[in-house]
Amino acid sequence: NLTNLKLVVTTGMRNASIDLESASNQGVIVCGTDGLPYPTAELTWGLVLDLARNISHEDKTSRLGKWQTRIGTGLNGKTLGIIGLGRLGSQVANYGNAFGMNVLAWSQNLTKEKAEKEQAQLATFKELLTQSDFISIHTVLSDRTRGLIGTNEFKLMKGSAFLINTSRGPIVNEEDLLAALKSREIAGAGIDVFSDEPLDSNHELMQLNNVVITPHIGYVTKETYKIFYSDTVDCIKRYFDGKPIRVLSQ
Length: 250
Fold this sequence. Notes:
- By secondary structure, the chain is an alpha/beta fold.
- The protein contains nine helices and nine strands.
- The chain has a seven-stranded parallel beta sheet with strand order 5-4-3-6-7-8-9, with helices on both faces. Strands 1-2 form a two-stranded parallel sheet.
- Helix 2 (38-53) packs across helix 4.
- It is globular and about 60 Å long.
């Protein structure tokens, strides 16, 4: 409906909320910015450590006058399962190895050679679910991954296992996640992304004491925002100067 629109600039080089085909048909250029691969991986590990050692929980209870209310879980010797061993997943694999964990990895196109290169062991999806103590998601949202983890997958996981999702909310069926957390079918979860954002303050996840919630801040660092803002200005300047632009593709 914006007949005079010529340029759209978005942060990053992927944005599922923009209809690129329609933009192209109307001659609208969609330009993306660069970004950094490590902030989300770092947040992922922050959630792993928080869940393992109850950092957020013990902070809250200490302020209420309580002392040592839970027993933590050590990471050394535990199994880390990574779904998606790309730029982010491979960094998380490195962190797992640094902490002395056994690292399993799975994705629909992952090869044994690629897994071994990242010091991970290729596993089937079922093996990863049944053997992992911590499962971290690092795959893109697509028709193949939407609802990838639901009731059946939670039943395969250990009762002591933790799920971490810093990728996209709909990869995990939220209702099934709630049920698994409420029934203690799994030990807990660290969630940075949700089906609807911002997450409603009355959402049931907010009431649970075995989930750590962050407000989609995987990419939110000073270093990332510096790139976002400067690249946005650069996209606009290049458009007016007639220079090549980082155009999003389908």
